[in-house]
Description:
The strands form 2 sheets. The chain has a 7-stranded antiparallel beta sheet with strand order 4-1-7-8-9-6-5. Strands 2-3 form a two-stranded antiparallel ribbon. The protein has a single domain, classed as Beta Barrel (Thrombin, subunit H). It is mainly β. 14% of the residues lie in helices and 45% in strands. The relative contact order is 0.23.
Amino acid sequence: MTAIDTKLLAEVYTIAETYGKSVVFTVPGSSTYAPSTGKVTEGSVVTHTVNVTPPEQYDRRYVDGELVQARDVQVILPAKNLAFTPDLGMKVTFDSEAFDIVSLNPLYSGTSICAYEVQLRQ
């Protein structure tokens, strides 16, 4: 990681912490399979509260009714100090409203992930 990568990671994190919104990501637990019994045991669900950029609706020109729907919002999730890796289908809650991650794009600074561009849908 270069000096500029380190600086950019810190800057994105600081912006989200200063101006962002607190949201809760619900991370499903890992399942385990016991071959001897054929039983699958679900793991415990874990929640993580982090700050993201304020949710922003997509510009109308990007709303196609399929990939981007009218009520979809986008947030930027800083990767610095993130205790989990976001994934499609994860639940995100803010302002007492639940959303699903429907699209996720890592944003790189060099070879390091600086942040995630996250599309949320109710």
